[in-house]
From TrEMBL:
Organism (species): Ornithinimicrobium ciconiae
Positions of region (Disordered): 310-345
Signal peptide region: none
Pfam short name (any one): ABC_tran
Coiled coil: none
ABC transporter domain residues: 18-243
UniProt keyword list: ATP-binding, Nucleotide-binding, Transport
GO molecular function ontology, one term from the record: ATP binding
Biased composition range(s): Low complexity: 335-345
UniProt similarity note: Belongs to the ABC transporter superfamily.
UniProt-recorded name of the protein: ABC transporter ATP-binding protein
PANTHER family membership: ABC TRANSPORTER, ATP-BINDING PROTEIN
UniProt-listed SUPFAM superfamilies: P-loop containing nucleoside triphosphate hydrolases
Length: 345
């Protein structure tokens, strides 16, 4: 959720650790990121979501100083990446898990990175264990599965024990057990107060992991808020053979209720998440209840509506991207060692 202006800010709210302000990136005439503004709060996991080509990676690369914005700013703890005094200890990044030196072992990869930042080897072994690949540590990274590379990228991002983690599609290539592990791992890091921003092109992939969402389409913000806000007001679905009588009884009991024909015959939607209250009111009125459950927002549908609405038909797909292949970041551009070593696009 966007933190309100200072005057109305609740006392417990903390400063946003990541602030993206009016950020834009043009590649020639093509606008990949379009006046994007959002904030990411510490101690929370934020999903940065959007379909393929929406501009997620481009935004993250600007935030991490790997490419220059055309306009606007991306700040981490109040400054640009380039101005961070100890970048590896402030922000850990894993932008893509494919570019490890194939001939180098996982352990050596981390050791090289650690050595260049004065981090002891003991931290390397600690992290290999923490991310669950101690046995693979002495194998060449070229033989790693996608999931193992993701874990190695995560270890690299965590080397400096940073306060902020930026992970591009971290569950790509993980099996269901790996995804569950990642969820618990990130949750633990967030509970320690770390700020975690993870990108994904699918809401369903991260909906159980994230606290907040920033959804973009065609480089523009389409929604920012908490998962609870995305789910909307709680509602119950109750099915009965007497929907008229039930609606009257529920309304008399102070609950908003109306027919919900989309859910089939006899379905009534009630504006509460309190199923017991619904059941009790129905019982008191002597009305049979055939089904009673929480009515969940179809998040997949909502996400699709937000990102694939006709006016948002993805202009990134097709001709422009095809004629303008991605170029490498300019050599002078500063960038996080973890992301560079761990694979920048
Ligand atoms: N260096 C570049 N030159 C030209 N176009 C680029 C460059 N980098 C990215 N783009 C284009 O910008 C758009 C946004 O790309 P980006 O990689 O940021 O999207 P994304 O949301 O991360 O997508 P995905 O989920 O597929 O990774 C795409 O159309 C892409 O082709």
């Amino acid at each position: 959720m966007t933190v309100p202006a200072t005057a109305e800010r609740p006392p417990q709210a903390r400063e946003a650790a990541i602030v993206v302000r009016d950020l834009s990136k043009k590649f020639g005439d093509f606008v990949a990121v379009d006046h994007l503004t959002f904030e990411v709060q510490p101690g929370r996991i934020t999903g940065f979501l959007g379909p393929n080509g929406a501009g997620k990676t481009t935004t993250l690369r600007m935030l991490l100083g790997l490419i220059r914005p055309s306009s606007g700013t991306g700040l981490i703890n109040g400054v640009t990446y380039a101005a961070l005094p100890r970048p590896l200890e402030t922000v850990g990044a894993a932008l893509e898990a494919t570019n490890f030196h194939p001939g180098r072992t996982g352990r050596d990869h981390l050791r090289v990175l650690a050595a260049t930042h004065g981090i002891p080897d003991s931290r390397v072994d600690e992290l290999l264990t923490l991310v669950g690949i101690p046995a693979a540590a002495n194998k060449r990274a070229g033989g790693y599965s996608m999931g193992m590379r993701q874990r190695l990228g995560l270890a690299a991002a965590l080397l400096g024990d940073p306060e902020v983690l930026v992970l591009d599609e971290p569950s790509n290539g993980l099996d269901p057990e790996g995804i569950r592990w990642l969820r618990g791992f990130l949750r633990h890091l967030a509970s320690e107060g770390k700020t975690i921003l993870i990108s994904s092109h699918q809401l369903s992939e991260v909906e159980q992991t994230v606290d907040d969402v920033v959804i973009i389409a065609n480089g523009q913000l389409v929604r920012q808020g908490t998962m609870d806000e995305l789910h909307g007001e709680p509602a119950a679905l109750v099915r009965t053979s007497d929907s008229r009588g039930l609606i009257t009884a529920l309304r008399a009991g102070g609950l908003p209720a109306l027919d919900e024909p989309a859910q089939g015959p006899g379905a009534v939607r009630v504006g509460t998440g309190n199923l017991a209250q619904v059941g009790d009111l129905a019982l008191a009125a002597g009305i049979p209840v055939h089904e009673l459950r929480v009515l969940r927002t179809d998040l997949e549908r909502l996400y699709f509506q937000l990102t694939e609405a006709p006016e948002r038909q993805n202009r990134n797909r097709g001709e422009v991207a095809a004629t303008a292949p991605p170029t490498a970041a300019p050599p002078s551009t500063p960038g996080p060692a973890a992301a560079t070593e761990g694979g920048q696009r």
